[in-house]
User: Fold this.
Amino acid sequence: MITLENKNLLVKISRGRGARVEHFIDRHTGKDWVWKYSPELKKELHELDGFDENWEGGWEEVFPNDAPVEINQFKLTDHGELWRRTWELIPSEDPNEAVFELECETYPVIIQKKFLLKENELKIDYKIESRAAMDLPFIFKFHPALAIEPGDEFHMPGSYMEPVALGFSRLLGIDKKTVFPIGVAQSGEYVNIQRALPEDGHSREFVRLSDLEEGMCALFNPGTGTRLTFQFPKDKFPYVWLFQSYGGFNGHYVSMLEPTNAGHYDLGEAHKNQQCGEIRPGEKLDFSLSLKLESSDMMIS
Assistant:
């Protein structure tokens, strides 16, 4: 485990599967914003093993695809390969950073991510280099499992919202784009976790937000008066997927705010509709996002 820490934050990053963030702890309140699930899961994964039954939580990435798909001559596995692989730790003399690198097996690319801890922020820089002789379409999604509590609120930019999969939808329940207001919905009907659950007691939702007014999304915890805010460039992350499970997915009580370049979970469909990324032969891409912890007096209304 790699530890990055200062007076405000304690961040622990796995040296094993996924090089993922295992803990993101507010030192002032003791709150850990990372959701973890620890059943008896496989230590080593076969390339065809599914994501859902081997999900351990933490904050990781989905790349180069979401749903399993064969595109060109490449067979891409469930949720890509970053989450299932062990990354190489690159030595760094800076105690505030951790750098990892992975040579992918499903796509001929090398990907690097650098975690940099600042005063009240964790910045993540990504670099992707193609070794392919053809253009490669790809999905990139930040995929953080968030520890949530009743009463938590999602603070989202003005946008359009629609279900990712209507069959999973139990809160929104309509298969069309809906204008989403800036900040917390006035009635609290959608963004407030404290709402009454359906009769079966298993509430869940999975929506996609597009046409974002700004590159941000956030989770606010009233108990501590703090907000975890994701900031990102809209041209690199033009969508945010919001996953909610309050017992409605494998019994999990968890949520995810997923900045992504993907307008669809099927890479072939997303590529056809120009709703994903593409990297050219020999091209090097770089982009960043930051995770900032804010107290109530730091938030901009």
